[in-house]
Structures are given as C-alpha cells and as structure tokens.
Amino acid sequence: MIKKQSVGIWFNIIVAVLTIVSVIVYSVNISGEGYFQNASVANLVAYCVIAVVMLAAVIALAQPKVTGTAAIVTEIISGLLRIAVPVLLTLCLVNLISARAEGLGFIYFSNADVLQEVQTPANMSSATGTIANMICLGAAAVFAMIAAFFTLRKKEA
Amino acid sequence: MRAKKLAPVMRGLSAITASVMALSIVGADIADGYRARIDDFLGTQSYVTNTDEDSARFVSDYATFEEMKAAAKDIAVREGEEGTVIMKNDNNVLPLSGKSVALFGLAAYAPYPYASGDLKAGNEDAVDLVQAFQDAGIEINQTVMDFYENGILNEHTEEVPNQWTGEIEIQTAYDNIYVTSPGDMTTYQINEIPPSEYENFGAPADWESQIDKDNTVGICVFARGAGESNTYAPGSAVNYAGEETGEDPLALSEDELAVIDAAKETCSQVVVLINSGNTMMLSDIAAGGEHEVDGIAYIGCLNDYQATGVVNVLTGQINATGALPDTYVADNASIPAVQNFGGGYYADYEVVNSDGDDSRYPGTTIENVEAGSFGGTSPTYNGGTYIVEAEGIYVGYKYYETRYYDSIANPDSGAASSAGATQSDAWNYNEEVIYDFGHGLSYLDYEQSLKSIDVDRTEDGNITAVVEITNNSDQDGRFLAQLYVQQPYTDYDKENNVEKSAVMFLNSAKVDVAAGATEEVTITIPTKYLASYDYTNAKTYILDEGDYYFTAAAGSHEAVNNILAAQGYTTADGMDAEASGDVQTWNLAEFDNTTFAISNDTEVTNVADDADLNYWTEDDTVTYLSRQDWEGTWPVNYNEVEINISDSPKSEEWIAELRGETYTIQDGDAATEGTDNGLRFDTTNIQYEQLEDIADPFWTELVGQITIDEAVGAVIHGGSQTDTLTNVDNPVVVQNEGVSGFTATYTDEETGETYRFNVHSQTLLGSSFNPELAYDWGRVEGNSGLWLQRYHLWGVGLTQRRTPYNGRNYEYISEDPMLTNRMGYGVLQGCADMGILNGPKHMGFNDQEHNRAGISVYLNEQKFRETDLRCFQGGLEDADGMAVMIAFNRIGATNASHYAPMLQTILRGEWGYTGLISTDMMNNNYYFNPESMIMAGITQVADFATNDNHINMGDGGTDATWAYISEDAVANDASLVDQARENLKYQLYTFANSAVMNVSTERVQTWWDTAISTVTYVSGALAVITLAAWIVLTVKPAKKKED
Questions:
Q1: In the prediction, which pLDDT does B241 show?
Q2: What is the domain range of residue A89?
Q3: In sequence order, which residues have a C-beta less than 8 Å from that of residue B448 and are 6 or more positions away?
Q4: Transmembrane stretches, by residue range (chain A) (predicted)?
Q5: Are the Cβ atoms of B1027 and A91 closer than 8 angstroms?
Q6: Do B22 and A79 touch (CB under 8 A)?
Q7: What average pLDDT does chain B have?
Q8: B88 vs B109: CA distance, rounded Å
Q9: What domains are there in chain B, each with its CATH number?
Q10: What ipTM describes this predicted complex?
Q11: pLDDT tens digits for range B561-620
Q12: How far apart are CA B438 and CA B562, in angstroms?
C-alpha cells in the first residue's frame, strides 16, 4: 500500500510531517526557558492543525478509485485544499517572523555593553529554537507549493 | 492530453501566487509597523512635513480677532446663563420681568472679583450687574444707587504692588468694600455697611420713601473674598464696627441681615444673590429663617461678562438650569471634614529637627516649623503639622444623603444619633441641610425620567443612560438632567471597611425641549467609576454583587428619595417627601474584583498604605467615618490626640520622610554622559510614528543625548519656562498662569486694540453642570492660546472642595469628584484639541491653603483614590490632558511631589498619562528635595526662574538652590540620571504633540509601498487566473472523454 503512493502523495506527507514538527518545535520553544518562553503566536497552532487536517483529507481523497463526475469533484476539492495549505503555512510563517523579529534583534543585535546580559544560554537556545521553527515552517510552505504541482495518482500502466 | 498536463501546473502556480498574495497582504501590515526602520535602511521617506500656515496641525477656529473676542464673550455670558442657580423662588418673585429693582449691598455695585488679574480680565467692555440690569431694561432705583455708588463705594484707582512681581499696577479701589482676601486662618471682617450708617454716607433721610415699594424688588448682593494662600477660620467673623462676633465668616452677618431687613421694609419682595466661591450658611434667609426672603440665587464669582447671563436668568430671558455644586448646610460644624481642618503640630515635631546632622546640609540647623504659604526665611522642613481626613469618602452630600438614607433604611447605624447634629439633640437631615447638592429650580415645569440604562462591565466600558425630559410648560426651554446611582452596600463591605455613599452623582447633560414636547438625552460615563476601592481585603477596585439603582433627579436628595421609594419606603418610614421611585436597576450576579484590577496593563493594588496615620503608629489611632456606626465613628479632631513621632516603631523612616529623604542619591553605577548623536527636536526627526508613540525608540535616543548636568538641571529648574537643551534644540516654552484663562494681553496688529481672554468663571462653570460648556470653554481657551502664541497654561483648578473654608474654592469646581471629573474632562479636552497644554492644579489633597507647603495629610486608600484623585482622572486619563500641577502638601508624611505611588504608579501606570508633571511653587529647598522629585517622575520643578537648565548655577559647580547637588554628586547614580532623562522624555513628547510644534505631517507612498501593493495585486490576479484555468482544464477533458 505504502509503496504504491505517488510522488505527490509523498510530498504531501512530507509537508504534514514538517508542519507537525513545526508545532512541536514551537511548543517546546514557548514552554522552555528563555526569551520566548510563554510568547505564544496568535493562530499559529490553529492554522497548522487545520493544514495537517487538510493534508490528511487530500491523501485520503486520493486513495479510492473513482470515475466520472465523482472523480472531477474529488479532484476539485483536493486541489483547492492543496492550494489552501501553502497559503495557511505562509501566514503561519509570516506571523511567526513578525512576532519574533524584535526579540531576535534584541538577542543578536543589542549594544555591545548589554550583549553579555542578553545572550544567556537560555536566550540563545530560545532564539535557536525559534529560528528552527521558522525553517521548518518555511520548508513546509515551500514543499506544499511544490506538492501542488504533482498529481496524486500513479499513472496506470 | 495537453490539458491534462497543464492542469497540475496551473494548480501549482495558483498555490504559489495565492501564497505570495497572502504574504504581501500580511507583510504590508508588518512593514508598516517597522516603517521608520525600513525607511532608514532603504533611505526612503514615508512622511513629508508641511510647514506652511494652512498645514498647521492646530488652527484657530476663528479667522479674525473680532470672531475670537466674540467667542470668548459668548462663553462668559453662557456661564452666567447656565451657572446661575435659583435656590429659592417664592411668591413668583422671579423672573423679574416688568418690575423695578433696588440694589442693596456692596457687591451689587462691585461684584466679586472687581480687580483685574487672575480672576478677572478687566476688559473695557466688561459688564457689571448694574449695567446688565440696565441693558435688560430693568429700572434701578436711583436714590439707593446714588448713595451706594457715590457715598459708600466711591470707585477710584490705586497703585498696588503685584503680589508676585512687585511691579506697581493701577487697580480699581473703593472707599468701602468687602474684604477680598480672607487671610490665613485669621479674622475676617464682613464689611457690609448696615442701614443705620446709610445717612452717614450720603443717603437722604427719606431714602426709604423714594422707593416705590409695591413695584420694586429689593436685590441684595453679598460677596465673600478668596485667594491663593487664604483659608477662612471657622468662627472668625468681625462685623462692620470691627468687633469680633464669634460668628462664622461664611454665615450672613448681622449687618448683612440688617441690609436684607431694610430691603424687606422698603420693597415688596426681596431676592438675595450669593456672590462667592465659598459655600455659605443661609438658614437665616431660607424657608423658616428669621430673615426669610422670597428668592435666593447663586451667582458665583463674576468675570467680565457673566453678569449679562445672570440677569438673563433673573429676568426670565432664559430658563434657569444651574444647580448647586455643593451642599448648603445650616452650620458648617455639622460637616465631618470640618472636624479635622487647619491642622496642628505633632506632639514631638521637634524630633525631626536637624542640629547639623542632615548629611545634605552639614552644620545647618534646620527646624520643623510652619513656613507660611510663600516659604520661610529660616531653614525648616515644614513637616511639623498634620491633619487626618478621617471623613473618608463622606464629603458633602455623600455624608448627608447617606446618613439620611440610613436613618430610614438602616436605623441601627446610629444615623439619628446626636453625633454631628448641630440643630438639635438628634441628627435630622432637614434641620442640617438647607439646599442639597444638585438643587436648582427651573422656571419652567418639567419632569425627568430615566428610560434605560446599559452597563458595559469591561475595563474601558461605559454606562449609557437615556433620560427623558418632558417640558410641561407653554414655553420652549433648556433643561438639566442629572444621573445618580446607588451601589449595593453589602456584608462584605461592612467586614472590610469599604464605604459606599447611598447615592453618587455620575454625570449630567442639558437639552433644549420645545413647549409641551419630550426629548431624550443620552448620558455616558466610564463604568470604572461605578467601582469602589477596597483597601483592606481585595486591595483593588471591586463591584459588589446586587442591584445598582440608577435614577435621574433634580438633586442628590430627590435621587436618594427616588431610590428609597423604589425600595418600598414611604413617608411612614421617615422619608421627608414622597418620591417617584423612578429608577432603573442593573443587577450584578457575582462579586467582581477583577474587571478593574488591571488598568492600562498596570495591576491596580494598594500603593498608599503609608498615607494612613495608622501605618506609622502601627496602631488603630485613626477611626475612619463609617456608615456602619455613625455615632461611634464620628471623627474626632486628631490634632487633639497626642501623636508622638518618636513613639512609632517606624520613627526613623517617619523622620526621614518628614525631612524629605524619600530618595537618597546613590554612589553606585556611573551615569552615561549624553553625547550628540545628531538627533534633534524637529520635524525632520519627529514624524507621525514618533508623535503617536512615546515608546518609539527615537525618544529614548533623543534624551540619551542630554548631558548629566542638563538632565538633572532641566528638571529641578523647570519652572516659569522650559529652556533649550544643548543636544536637543527644543524650543523654549513659557508657562502661563490663569485659572480664568491666559492672563496675557493680546494686541491686535491692525487696530492696536488690546484684549484679555481670561474671561472665564470657574465657579459658574461648576454650577452649570454642563460638561459640553466645559469643553466649549476649553476650546475657546485653547484658541486664545493660539492667538497669543502661548502654548502652556496652568489654567484650571480641579482640587476637591473638601470644606467650605478653603480660600481657593473659587478656583475649583465642586465638593463632588465626579462633577469635577467631567468638567475637567471637558476643559482639558477642549484645550488639547487646540494643541494647548492646560495643567490643572493641584493634584493630591491640596484642599486647604493653610500651611499648604508642608502639612501632612493622612487618609486611607479608598479616600485617596475615590475623592481628590478622581477629580483629576477625567482630564488626565479619559481626556488627552497634557500637564498637571501637583499639590503643595504632603500625602502621608511624603511631599506630594516626592510621592511615586501617585505619580509613577497611578498617573503614569494606571492612567497611562504621558504629559508634564510639575510641582507647585518651589519655595523651600528643605521641603522640596530634587533627587526625590526626579525619582517620583516630576518633569519640572516650578522654581520660577528662566534659562537655568543646569545644575551648576551656584559657586564651584554646585547648585545654587541645593548646594549638595553637583554634577559630581549625581554622576555615580545612573538610576537618578536615567530617571531625569525619562522625565524629560515625557516633556519633549508632550511639546511635540502640542501647538509648540504646530506643523502637520503627511504620509506619502514610498517605492517599497508601491512594490508591495503591486505584488499584492499581481499575485492576486495571477492566483485567480491560474485557479480558473486549473478548474477549466480539470473539468473540460473529463467532459470530452464522457462525450
């Protein structure tokens, strides 16, 4: 069953995995010690969860073999979801960058006389976590855009 | 086949372009937030500055001098019209239409104030009462007028030295006139000439027969003086003959009553006009009094044109809509606050003395005695005296109406006991109160009814009340609607000493109603004012569960009777009148101690525990008046209780505060010296973002340039004018005085005509009960600043009238915090809308002038927050007030200008206030301590000097005023210097947002704005096209296949 999946499905699975990883990194980042502790970002988790649910729907819709009008409807729904997912993930990324820009600037670009106070191990770890979070979300968004170019069914021989 | 291949491509492109569109839309918002930095980085400019006159941010509403002058006059006349209060009107004595008058009393011909200055503009076209009557076509008895004007008063001019500058001024003077300055707790001569002396002053022997008695109304006008540093002393009256009578100076004297009796003998009816800023004792002439008259009206203090408005009311040209801003009582001794008034010394006040051990003043002997209102000549901390404001929230009607309510609804409270009773053995409202707060008779019959109430219980929510006014008369007219509320008084309150007034004024409004018609008027007020401060348990604002009774009423007494009736009480239960019971209730199901526990992101909790004398004695020394037990808690005079500072477990801390050592200069981290980074106070650097946000980094960077010397020096020498700072290049801003408006003279360039715009009357504004009029005056006052090109004014008094004896009550609005709050809101917002800084005086319990410069005022935190501070809250938190002057006295043992809990926590924190904070006159360097003032947040110490924004104005680099202050002395206290810069940041930010920088900025589209917009539109269009193409390509081949 797994081996039978198309490249498009695999891309969508990668996007889902990256999105889930993003949420985990985000959760660790805001719950751990450091500058971004408790600094939640509005709607980020909600958007990610919606994106994962959409991706699951996309993968599910690709499994049954349907024909005729049902196939067209399935294809349209699946396609709209695959357009919406990168939009949601892009919004997450922009929100995250917006929320973190001041903090990262403070940690990395403060005046030399306060850098020692600012760049504590906890703050640096927190900043690294946030950057990892951005990379994951950015990658998820890019993979989601790429995934939209692929069909989900394997060519029949 | 081709379509099948293209469809996924279109879908993919649609996903990319839709994502880019989302990115650009959200990104544009984010970029807007970082606009200044992006501009810096890219070298673009998002704002252009318009410096031409037409582009000024603040432009006068008036195109010509004539229009400006007419607007000022119009406001003054309206104050007379809306502020005149008809207190008594029997036998249809008013309005006066068709009758002649005979004017009696010195003030009839020279109403207070008569001398031009702060209180009176003194323009050439000023109108006094005589002229106003004549202008209205009222015939004045010539015989009486002749002997008063020519024989008794004999107006002339005198050369008088100015109180402040010493310059000789020409002032109006009279041979015989009432005393205009009551002095400082001394005797007060009521200089009214009794009728027995008339002939000695030129009255013909038959003057009485020269009055057509049947067709003449006698108008008797009596004044009381007032003034800065003046305080009436109870029982200090001296009669015309110069004898001490032991009577109260605020009661009508025997000589004045004799004038009234003469008027009654010679005229068919008599009206008494009260020309005073101090509430008087009028039982002699009120209903049932030995000298009862037909009519009484309050006319406040008259400036240049108010007399026209007063006479318009007296003659019925306009309906009477004024209401009393204070309670008029039979005997001021019945007032709880009067039990602790004036103050006295601690038993061991001398323990505070320094015999040279004060490290700031080594070798100097410093005493701890009163220094007088204008400072002393020998060194003194002036911390020897105190008062205890043990009445708590029960000031004015809040005491009388609550005790009345409890006498009916809570008889076990001791409301009818003898405590506080002055007229008989048992306390009785109708014996003690002559006219209630909010009382004012209308000529036209009307009804007011509260139709609906809506309470938005959120931090920034409002109470919205709709009041229906029905004009039952056959004339069109203007009417006053007053909104009151009763909060629940619960077991929780009793357990935790939370006091509640049985009725609380909230706000008022006026409306024009045609004859026989009904109009609705909407009254709003922030919901936060419904909350009470619980300083013992919740330690924040609370709303008790239960019913809140709202009512519209013509005064506090009618309001409380409406509530009693709604609760099922009747005259059988002791009510003194049947009432409509017309109330609207709002029920709160659960106790709420959270909604108002956060304000402006600041936790609201106790900050003023040390204002309570019990904090220092660590004993229950003070018992605050409580409605739980009126008799047992009736205030004693705490100046008759022996208070020994040295007995306190905290005596060391207490003595330090009384010596002004609230903060001590630290020898720690070195302060950063200011260096020129090229930033300036100008329109190049200060753009839209900087004007909008004091947190913009520009402000910190700007004040970071100020040198240590100037940062500290500019704050501690900030009075009279703010000077230019070396690395900032801010403009000099001159401070102006005038509770009645700018006292400066305007000269019209074209005609050379001169004019003074300080034509306002604070007393009549208070009795107008019209917040819209307050706004209109504020706007005219602001306009006059633009015409005078003066932008900073100490131009309104908002201190609570705690007792009738404060000689400065004429500058203030009312005994009630909310009436003062709403009037302050109007005046300050009106000025702010014209870009003028109008600083109200004197926040923080400066409620007596006697020993104002040092007396300790002790109180609990409920009183602290719900009385005097609430008077200022409307203008400084709710409106855009830009300046405030702090009280002269101490709060607890701490100089009010050192009191960070009030200035930093409440004013800056809870209220989010970003304006200037000035001290009052710095007249005693042993009382005002520079480092403590800086740390409390004072932006400028009022030292009344100019061009002195440095520390080192004295010998050898030390400060000329405080010799222990030098650049070296503060250079190792980084916190102090940083705080001084922070204080100056507020000052500069405020100037930038005022007419001081009267230019406008305009947003323009940068290339990167255009780029983002283009990306948004193009990606959006492409997203739609590719989406459509994908759908078509997906559907079409499938259909073909089916075909």
A1: 97
A2: 5-146
A3: B467, B468, B469, B470, B479, B481, B482, B552, B553, B554
A4: 7-28, 40-62, 83-110, 130-152
A5: no
A6: no
A7: 94
A8: 23
A9: 84-157+171-318 (3.40.50.1700), 395-615 (2.60.40.10), 643-667+684-999 (3.20.20.300)
A10: 0.93
A11: 999 999 999 999 999 999 999 999 999 999 999 999 999 999 999 999 999 999 999 999
A12: 14
Q: What are phi and psi of B461, to 5 degrees?
A: -75, 170
The answer as to whether A68 is a domain residue is yes
- Can you say how many angstroms the Cα of residue B807 is from the centroid of all Cα atoms in its chain? 16
Q: B190 to each of A16, B251, B849, how far by Cα in Å?
A: 92, 10, 20
Per DSSP, the residues of B250-264 read: TBPPHHHHHHHHHHH
pLDDT digits (tens, 9 = 90+) for A66-124: 888 888 899 899 999 999 999 999 999 998 998 888 788 878 877 666 667 778 888 89
**Contact state of B22 with A71 under an 8 Å Cβ cutoff:** no
DSSP-H helix ranges across B622-721: 651-658, 688-692, 697-703, 708-716
CA distance B234 to B179: 16
Residue A131 falls within a domain, yes or no?
A: yes
Pairing mode, if any, of strands B532-534 and B540-542? antiparallel
Which residues, 6+ apart, have CB-to-CB distance to B542 below 8 Å?
Answer: B498, B531, B532, B533, B534, B591, B592, B593, B596
Is there a contact between B901 and B607 (Cβ–Cβ < 8 Å)? yes
* Amino acid sitting at position A127: A
Between the CA of residue B713 and those of B717, B923, B950, B990, B999, what are the distances in Å?
A: 6, 17, 4, 19, 29
Q: Do B9 and A149 touch (CB under 8 A)?
A: yes
Alpha-carbon Rg for chain B in angstroms: 32
Cα–Cα distance for residue pair B560/B807, rounded to 1 Å: 31
Residue A64 within any structural domain of the chain: yes
Cβ-in-10-Å burial (0-12, 13-18, 19+) of B116 comes to buried
Rounded to the nearest angstrom, the minimum Cα separation between A53 and chain B is 18
Lookup: tokens for B790:
């003066």
Determine contact, residues B440/B323, Cβ cutoff 8 Å. yes
Strands (E) in B52-204, as ranges, are 85-89, 100-104, 156-161, 168-173, 188-189
Interface size A-B, in CB pairs within 8 Å, comes to 67
Domain count, chain A: 1
Among chain B, residues having any CB pair with chain A shorter than 8 Å are: 8-9, 11-12, 14-16, 18-19, 22-23, 26-27, 30, 33-34, 1027, 1030-1031, 1034-1035, 1038, 1042
